[in-house]
């Protein structure tokens, strides 16, 4: 076992970033042993030391603490081993968790070599703070960086701290402001692409003139998603450098590959790529440094909540002659850590959103193809809620051939409301099928009676309607409403009318009622619109204003194709401050039946359906 070299005089300075230098840092503490031999040696030597000692792996997690360290920290090895050392120990003088970009021990860990820190504070198990002086030294195993060993001893709180710590934190206020702004930028959106765009435009040009983000997808395929460059006072996306990358090579010793495989943040210079590339991704990185002219760069891992590496952030300097140092290394590491959590959150949100959209597609029915009838529907979730909610539409064919239309709204804007909506929809379908020969009010009364007994839904509104008439027309609408906004009928020449008849009490209020029915003709080429209140309600305007706007816009769109009609109606009529779901179901009648074709005029006969 090779011991660290002895030094006479003052302690050595912290190591400088890569590049020309006149003073070399002491070589890292080396353990040329396998893991088992190393553990045996540590167990023999370190317990006898009259100083606290803990050992970190490459991810800065504690893998060992000696008995004296447990005694000083008033914590057991079982409490500490396996956890992030910074989160567990490193504190400021007032007891708050130290900023990673400010923490001298994190800087020492990232920079390698040996660093003295004379004014640190460690958290104790009893909640008190332990003022300490430390020496942090990197160690290797089989010539590969393996982590750090930290030796610490108590100091009195009033001892004069080492002022070199403060001289290294040049422009600390600006750096902390950058960390704060980065946090806000990353946490104020769940759109991953937007979050990364905000990130690189904060880093460039304040920290570097180049910024690159590489991401691993769920299949471990690597893609360069963002490359930005600051030049002549402007920030530009360099799209030619973006796109898919070669796979991460486990045998590669180059920095990007190592970071993507779990290594900590690294300082990089052009000399790193002077040798022949050992993989496809290393060749791409060499070309990147050549084409951009970067002479100093930092590559930081983007880690998720479970410390999984999701990608890498590279910041580099070309026009700026300064090289990155340990303080900036720690800063970029902190930014990368926050960016990784933001990427992880965005991916979790996107997975949940896709799952919810799949659920929505199963909850809401497909459109039907019915001879000459056009039908389409739209669903928009509440802007600040889940992608599904209590609003729904339904359409199905009854045993007598009549087309049934439903629009409804269960109170709520979340998955619970969606589940309750599904219960109501299925019960309503069953009753409509069983009592298909009766009026719509009979079906809705049965549903209202069953509501408290076989569902978890509390309050709901709906319109249940039958489109009656022979094939080819003339047709009529036969409906009842349970406290729901009235259907809107728009004729081909732009006349609009709300079908206000058939109004009854909403479902779930517990009052017995005989609901009314209503019947209205459906003219040729007219458009029938069933909708939920999210299309017309505003917290700042009366409901009459919303209904008037709906009628006005519907009239102007009367002859537009039905899909365009629906999209434009929502875009134009929806109040700006609306925060509710919207469901919309539209039906357009054809011209009257072609002359000479036979009519089937049996009462109650509906159009001929074909499931889409």
UniProtKB/TrEMBL annotation:
Residue numbers spanned by region Disordered: 1-35, 589-612
Keywords: Hydrolase
CDD domains xrefs: PAS (cd00130)
PAS domain: residues covered: 38-113
Gene3D superfamilies associated with the record: 3.30.450.40, PAS domain, PPM-type phosphatase domain
Biased composition (Basic and acidic residues): 1-10
InterPro entries according to UniProt: Bact_Sigma-Reg, GAF, GAF-like_dom_sf, PAS, PAS-like_dom_sf, PAS_4, PPM-type-like_dom_sf, PPM-type_phosphatase-like_dom
PANTHER family: STAGE II SPORULATION PROTEIN E (PTHR43156:SF2), STAGE II SPORULATION PROTEIN E-RELATED (PTHR43156)
Name of the protein in its database record: SpoIIE family protein phosphatase
Organism: Microtetraspora malaysiensis
Organism ancestry: Bacteria, Bacillati, Actinomycetota, Actinomycetes, Streptosporangiales
């Amino acid at each position: 076992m090779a011991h660290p070299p002895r030094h006479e005089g003052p302690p050595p300075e912290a190591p400088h970033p890569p590049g020309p230098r006149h003073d070399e840092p002491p070589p890292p503490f080396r353990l040329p042993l396998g893991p088992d031999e190393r553990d045996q040696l540590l167990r023999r030597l370190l317990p006898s030391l009259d100083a606290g000692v803990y050992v970190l792996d490459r991810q800065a997690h504690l893998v060992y603490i000696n008995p004296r360290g447990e005694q000083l920290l008033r914590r057991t090895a079982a409490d500490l081993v396996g956890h992030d050392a910074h989160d567990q120990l490193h504190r400021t003088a007032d007891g708050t968790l130290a900023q990673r970009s400010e923490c001298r021990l994190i800087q020492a860990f990232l920079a390698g070599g040996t660093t003295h820190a004379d004014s640190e504070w460690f958290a104790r198990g009893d909640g008190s703070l332990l003022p300490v002086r430390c020496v942090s030294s990197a160690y290797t195993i089989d010539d590969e960086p393996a982590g750090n060993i930290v030796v610490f001893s108590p100091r009195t709180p009033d001892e004069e701290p080492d002022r070199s710590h403060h001289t290294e934190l040049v422009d600390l206020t600006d750096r902390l402001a950058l960390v704060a702004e980065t946090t806000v930028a990353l946490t104020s959106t769940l759109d991953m692409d937007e979050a990364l765009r905000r990130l690189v435009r904060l880093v460039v040009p304040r920290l570097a003139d180049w910024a690159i983000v590489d991401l691993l997808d769920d299949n471990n395929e690597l893609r360069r998603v963002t490359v930005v460059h600051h030049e002549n006072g402007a920030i530009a996306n360099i799209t030619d450098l973006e796109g898919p990358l070669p796979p991460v090579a486990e045998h590669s010793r180059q920095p990007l590959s190592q970071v993507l495989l779990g290594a900590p943040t690294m300082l990089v210079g052009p000399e790193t790529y002077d040798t022949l590339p050992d993989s496809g991704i290393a060749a791409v990185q060499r070309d990147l440094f050549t084409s951009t002219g970067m002479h100093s760069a930092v590559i930081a891992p983007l880690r998720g909540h479970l410390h999984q590496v999701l990608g890498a952030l590279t910041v580099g300097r070309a026009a700026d002659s300064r090289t990155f140092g340990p303080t900036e290394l720690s800063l970029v590491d902190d930014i990368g850590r926050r960016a990784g959590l933001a990427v992880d959150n965005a991916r979790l949100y996107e997975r949940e959103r896709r799952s919810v959209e799949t659920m929505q597609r199963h909850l809401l029915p497909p459109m039907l193809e019915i001879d000459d009838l056009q039908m389409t529907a739209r669903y928009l979730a509440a802007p600040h809620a889940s992608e599904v909610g209590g609003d729904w539409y339904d359409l199905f064919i009854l045993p007598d051939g009549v087309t049934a239309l439903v629009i409804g709204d269960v109170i709520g804007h979340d998955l619970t409301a969606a589940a309750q909506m599904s219960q109501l929809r299925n019960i309503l379908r069953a009753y409509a099928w069983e009592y298909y020969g009766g009026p719509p009010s009979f079906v809705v009364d049965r549903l209202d009676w069953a509501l408290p007994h076989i569902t978890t839904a509390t309050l709901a509104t709906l319109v249940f309607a039958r489109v009656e008439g022979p094939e080819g027309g003339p047709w009529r609408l036969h409906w009842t409403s349970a406290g729901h906004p009235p259907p809107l009928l728009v004729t081909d020449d732009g006349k609009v009318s709300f079908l206000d008849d058939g109004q009854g009490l909403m479902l779930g209020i517990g009052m017995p009622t005989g609901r009314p029915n209503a019947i209205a003709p459906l003219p040729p080429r007219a458009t029938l619109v069933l909708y939920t209140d999210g299309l017309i309600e505003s917290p700042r305007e009366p409901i009459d204003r919303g209904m008037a706007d709906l009628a006005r816009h519907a009239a102007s769109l009367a002859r537009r194709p039905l899909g365009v009609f629906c999209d434009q109606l929502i875009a134009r009529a929806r109040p700006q401050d609306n925060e509710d779901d919207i469901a919309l179901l539209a039906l357009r009648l054809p011209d009257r039946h072609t002359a000479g074709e036979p009519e089937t005029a049996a009462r109650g006969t509906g159009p001929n359906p074909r499931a889409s």
